[in-house]
């Protein structure tokens, strides 16, 4: 199994494994389409979802993954018509109890499980972005996750910002 070592400010983290069969083992809770025609499917592990449903903090071992797609155009519902997988999966895993930057590990892969040659610096750029969500245990999409946890309906959000800029979820 391919693994990607990540280093955080506190020193080396254990390696974050590629979540095999993630579409079957993780639960899709949201789709986020961006103005630059990038679409992302967001997944969480069952244990993490159960904690959210019970109003508890995310437990150690929670896995959140983001699969990225390219789009052709926007359909009449304002959703992206997907053209292909971007062949990327970004993964975060909660490694220890608590909240904040030092309790999560980050990984980036191609969909075949091989570490991705990430354009951004890992995990530095991941942490820089996710620290904006420190109040929600670094989960930027926490509002979407909570709505999914209460309704069981996969949430949809359209972001007017390109790239990896943080969007307000609605």
Overview of the molecule:
It is a single chain. The chain is an alpha+beta fold and 170 residues long. Helices cover 17% and strands 36% of the residues. It contains four helices and ten strands. The strands form three sheets. A six-stranded mixed beta sheet has the order 9-8-7-6-5-10. Strands 1-4 form a two-stranded antiparallel sheet. The N and C termini lie far apart (37 Å). 31% of the residues are buried.
Number of beta-strand segments: 10
Shape: globular
Oligomerization status of the protein chains: single chain
| DSSP strand content | 35-45%
Report Rg: 15 Å
| Major sheet details | 6 strands, mixed
Order of helices and strands: EEEEHEEHEEEHHE
Calculate the mean pLDDT score and round it: 78
Overall structural class, as computed from helix and strand content, comes to: alpha+beta
Helix segment count? 4
Distance between the termini: 37 Å
Strand order of the largest sheet: 9-8-7-6-5-10
Which percent range fits the helix content? 10-25%
Uncertain spans: 1-14, 119-124
